[in-house]
Amino acid sequence: MRLQLVTSDSSLVSADWFNAMFTMHGTTMIFMVIMPFGATFFNFLVPLMIGARDVAFPRLNAFSYWTFLFGALLMHAGFLIGQVPDAGWFSYANLTAAPFSEGKGLDFWALSLQVLGIASLAAGFNFVVTIINMRAPGMSMMRMPVFIWMTLVTSILLVLAFPIITVALIELTADRQFGANFFNTAAGGDPILWQHLFWLFGHPEVYILILPAMGVVSEIIPTFSRKPLFGYPVIVFSGIVIAIMSWAVWSHHMFTVGLGAIANSVFTITTMLIAVPTGVKIFNWIATMWNGSIDLKTPMLMAIGFVALFIVGGLSGVSHAVSPSDFQQQDTYYIVAHIHYVLFGGAIFGIFAGIYYWYPKITGKMYNEMLGKVHFWLMFVGMNLTFFPMHYAGLNGMPRRIYTYAEGFGWEGMNLLATIGYFVIVISLLIFIHNFFRSIKKGAEAGHDPWDAPTLEWSISSPPPVYNFAEVPVVRGQDAYWITKREAAARGETVPAEPHVDPSTIHMPSPSYWPLITSFGVVWIAGGLLIDVGWDYIRFPISFVGGLITIIGVIGWSNEPAAEEHHEAAEQH
């Protein structure tokens, strides 16, 4: 995409393939990169940070993973047969109607997103129950790490938001495959209905993407500032307020649709108001660093980069909130610049901060600090070089989603800078990949607590044993591990990692194939509807087989005993 746009009148790729590329780029980055990265941290860290041995429903967790994997593979399988979605990641009606989008590309898109939604719902319920029910003794809600709070808020948003897009995708599939008319104006349907349903899901989705990164940054900044988080209750409350208000701003994506002055005014006000709790978080992070003993290791650099870039993205977002100015910015590269400052400068920098911060815990090895800092600076410079010029290109009139442009508009310079910046980002990511895998083999041993961190996961060995904690810890305050280390230091002692015990003496769930079988059945249901051999009645028996596999998987799963031999050993112990 960047090579296509680097000069005017380029013919590197066709218009159709350019449409397919930006559609799959947006869909993949949102649903198959940022969201599963957040889920990765949830899976690994939630039990460790709340003092639990596992999530509440480990097999539901496995089902969520396999369903996500199969859904992502199904989405990309369209590339193998040249059937790729091409209506943008938000797939506005009536572009998605069969006459305007021929082939099966959008059917792959709609059905794969349904499968991915099932995976997200399963994970969301799991983490809500885990956090509410499985915290260590003494860990009240207001003693939970901020990352756990943001996981809880994100999971609740997931559970409430995904049913809305599910309804919209069912309607889209019905229109395309069964001749329904939800979005067909000629038959009394309404294309604007899709926009309302999509953005009523889509704006909470934006916070589903960014709140985990905010939680990561809220753990890293206190650790490397050697200070407790400033205003912990306010940061927690701000995250909750953001989640509640995210349901009241969706129509700022629709200012130019013609909803009328009253609707535009209301959503202008609510969109400005949602900037307030976000700004509160930023001031609290800055106040945490203020007068701290700051250690600029790579995780801290990434966290500071997150704060700086998210401020830029937030400010451009406030300019969108003003509906008259949004009329000028709508569907220009100014919007592209904004979304990338909040989702690349925000979510992606937060994800990398978390990867570097918890890398020693996950692998037991230290990464190369110099390569980490080179990665940060190249990615920081490359990101600004790529996306900041897009503000100017957009205000200068460059529409988004165009595959080429004529000479004379004055957009060549900005696009050249953006393409150069993109290659700087690629170089930075290659350095990260080299550092990641080289350090697994050759990195120094990390020890259990290399950062002198405040939360429970650093009290056990790196990487953690399968049972996490030999003895479930007792929490006596916020920043529980700092309290333990401070009391030990007062006695002139150090705190070693918790000793290992024989895993057979601890009751843990045994592995199961049933979640995998159930997930396979779910994706088969979706895949059956995509098979087109000229006879419509062939698709339904194929999907029915998928439903049968799913039912068999659920029955087998329900009747499988839970690790009885471990339970007996634990009782004897």
Helix content: 55-70%
Overall pLDDT? 93
* CA-based gyration radius: 25 Å
Using the alpha-carbon principal axes, give the shape.
globular
Poorly predicted residue ranges: 566-573
Distance between the termini: 61 Å
DSSP strand (E) fraction? under 5%
Order of helices and strands: HHHHHHHHHHHHHHHHH
- Helix count equals 17
Q: What's the story with the biggest beta sheet? A: none
Q: Structural class, please?
A: mainly alpha
Describe, in plain words, how this protein is organized in 3D:
- This protein has about 575 residues and is mostly helical.
- About 65% of the residues lie in helices and about 0% in strands.
- The chain is built from 17 helices and no strands.
- Pathway: Energy metabolism; oxidative phosphorylation.
Task: Furnish the topology, listing elements before pairings.
Blueprint: H1 2-5, H2 15-50, H3 58-77, H4 105-133, H5 146-178, H6 191-225, H7 232-245, H8 261-289, H9 298-321, H10 323-329, H11 333-363, H12 369-395, H13 412-442, H14 480-490, H15 514-528, H16 536-559, H17 564-572
Helix pairs in contact: 2-4, 2-6, 2-11, 3-4, 3-15, 4-5, 4-15, 5-6, 5-7, 6-9, 6-11, 7-8, 8-9, 9-11, 9-12, 11-12, 12-13, 15-16
Transmembrane segments: 29-50, 62-82, 108-134, 146-170, 197-217, 229-250, 256-280, 301-322, 334-359, 371-393, 413-433, 513-531, 537-557
Enzyme class: translocase
Cofactor: heme
